């Protein structure tokens, strides 16, 4: 039997535990990598998922307290607009449209970042004015940079509706990451953004996804942008994770 | 007189949710709240926490209706998958921190009324599916049932199950694999619930 077949068989044996959610993170990664290239195993996963889809019905039926409906409707009343009815950001590959559309958001994003930074420093009022002026100039440079480019930030499939893009500005060695349609992380979890170089991952910040599924993050990586292969967003149990252990939500290529 | 939403199929109701029609959500709630709540109770073991999971699952279905694609699965499958993730997250969080004892209005809990609409409107398919999966599980040896339930309802990995049951990891993997294979055989090709 070939090495390839051995690997296939080893992964196929993990599929029952994969669909039941009983694998360790390294095993999940191995299965998901294999699934990308193996239609047989993808079909097997689909079939076994049809089995797991019935497991919830094993629960003993229980009547629902009427209070739950009241509270749900009150929550919806407070935030009534479903995502699909909102105007979506243009596709990340529509470069010119994208850049034009994000210009206003960039201003808000950079101002927001400066605002956070200022909270950490001494709160001097004159800094706010300076920062606002600087951020406006930064946005202009960002959007107008002749060497800048946009790359797609693609969903891994865990959040199928998520889409986004990254504006990279090698001149200033900075990047602006924007997403739409990403559900808020589970309570207690955070979306951590990693710059990836080979097998190394560098935590460059937390993506602050709001109830509207949108977020922006300004990234100032420690090394030259060109030295990285990509960007990955994972869901982690805390913002200060040293290594990615959680589910990969979105990825982008940086190098060519 | 407008359309009686209760006559509409799930995908049509999801479309109406996308358009912001809360009444469509209510009809889906009537159909599936009981299944979702029962499932959540089974995982988190606490009615109050299960209510939170129930609300959050429907809230997400409302907010993310635009992402639901009927071609990729049925609405209840999607909703139950959201519920599973939320409920397993809850029990994992609970392992990391003490049980809460806050902000619960005990009087409100005690006088909690049952949502009879959700009881009555639950789809006939739900009880049929209950019977099918119970019958299928009953064909498995208890040890295989146990590992599948520990993984799916308690969010344990194979290694954690092996440690809990004090059994070799290989034994747990075999039981899980054989159990799932048998369930697949017994249940046969599935129509989407």
From TrEMBL, chain A:
Residues 99-237 form the Anti-sigma K factor RskA C-terminal domain. GO terms for biological process: regulation of translation. InterPro entries: Anti-sigma-K/W_factor, Anti_sigma_zinc_sf, RskA_C, Znf_put. Residues 10-42 form the Putative zinc-finger domain. Coiled coil: none annotated. The keyword Chloroplast does not apply. Gene3D superfamilies: Anti-sigma factor, zinc-finger domain. It is found in: Cell membrane; Membrane. GO terms for cellular component: plasma membrane. Keywords: Cell membrane, Membrane, Transmembrane, Transmembrane helix. The chain crosses the membrane at residues 96-116. One of its GO terms (molecular function) is sigma factor antagonist activity. It is a single-pass membrane protein. This is Regulator of SigK. It comes from Sphaerobacter thermophilus (strain ATCC 49802 / DSM 20745 / KCCM 41009 / NCIMB 13125 / S 6022).
From TrEMBL, chain B:
Residues 130-183 form the RNA polymerase sigma factor 70 region 4 type domain. One of its GO terms (molecular function) is DNA binding. Coiled coil: none annotated. Keywords: Sigma factor, Transcription, Transcription regulation. The keyword Transcription regulation applies. GO terms for biological process: DNA-templated transcription initiation. Residues 28-97 form the RNA polymerase sigma-70 region domain. The keyword Transcription applies. SUPFAM superfamilies: Sigma2 domain of RNA polymerase sigma factors (SSF88946), Sigma3 and sigma4 domains of RNA polymerase sigma factors (SSF88659). It holds the Pfam family Sigma70_r2. It comes from the Bacteria. Belongs to the sigma-70 factor family. ECF subfamily. This is RNA polymerase, sigma-24 subunit, ECF subfamily.
């Amino acid at each position: 039997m070939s090495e390839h077949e051995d690997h296939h068989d080893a992964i196929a044996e993990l599929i029952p535990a994969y669909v039941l959610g009983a694998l360790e993170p390294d095993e999940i990664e191995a299965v998901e990598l294999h699934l990308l290239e193996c239609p047989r195993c993808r079909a097997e996963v689909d079939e076994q998922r049809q089995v797991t889809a019935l497991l919830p019905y094993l629960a003993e039926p229980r009547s629902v307290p009427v209070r739950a409906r009241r509270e749900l409707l009150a929550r919806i009343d407070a935030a009534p607009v479903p995502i699909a009815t909102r105007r979506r950001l243009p596709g990340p590959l529509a470069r010119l449209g994208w850049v034009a559309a994000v210009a206003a958001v960039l201003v808000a994003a950079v101002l927001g970042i400066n605002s956070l930074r200022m909270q950490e420093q001494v709160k001097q009022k004159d800094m706010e004015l300076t920062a606002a002026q600087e951020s406006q100039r930064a946005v202009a440079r960002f959007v107008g940079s002749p060497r800048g480019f946009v790359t797609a930030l693609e969903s891994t499939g865990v959040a199928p509706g998520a889409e986004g893009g990254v504006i990279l500005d090698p001149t200033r060695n900075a990047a602006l990451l924007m997403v739409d349609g990403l559900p808020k992380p589970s309570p207690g979890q955070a979306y951590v953004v990693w710059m990836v170089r080979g097998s190394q991952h560098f935590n460059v910040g937390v993506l602050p996804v709001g109830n509207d599924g949108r977020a922006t993050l300004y990234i100032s990586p420690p090394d030259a942008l060109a030295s990285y292969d990509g960007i990955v967003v994972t869901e982690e149990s805390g913002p200060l994770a040293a290594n990615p252990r959680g589910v990969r939500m979105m990825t982008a290529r940086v190098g060519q | 007189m407008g359309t009686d939403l209760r006559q509409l199929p799930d995908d049509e109701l999801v479309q109406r949710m996308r358009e912001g029609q809360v009444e469509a959500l209510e009809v889906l709630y009537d159909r599936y709240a009981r299944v979702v709540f029962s499932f959540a109770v089974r995982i988190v073991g606490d009615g109050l926490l299960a209510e939170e999971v129930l609300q959050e699952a429907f809230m997400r279905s409302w907010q993310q209706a635009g992402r639901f694609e009927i071609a990729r699965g049925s609405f209840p499958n999607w909703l139950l998958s959201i519920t599973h993730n939320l409920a397993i997250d809850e029990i994992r969080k609970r392992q990391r921190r003490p049980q809460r004892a806050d902000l619960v209005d005990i009087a409100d809990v005690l006088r909690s009324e049952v949502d009879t609409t959700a009881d009555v409107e639950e789809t006939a398919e739900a009880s049929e599916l209950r019977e099918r999966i119970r019958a299928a599980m009953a064909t498995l040896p208890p040890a295989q049932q146990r590992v599948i339930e520990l993984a799916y309802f308690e969010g344990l990995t194979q290694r954690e199950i092996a440690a809990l049951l004090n059994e070799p990891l290989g034994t747990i993997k075999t039981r899980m694999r054989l159990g799932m294979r048998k369930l697949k055989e017994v249940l046969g090709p599935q129509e989407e619930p």
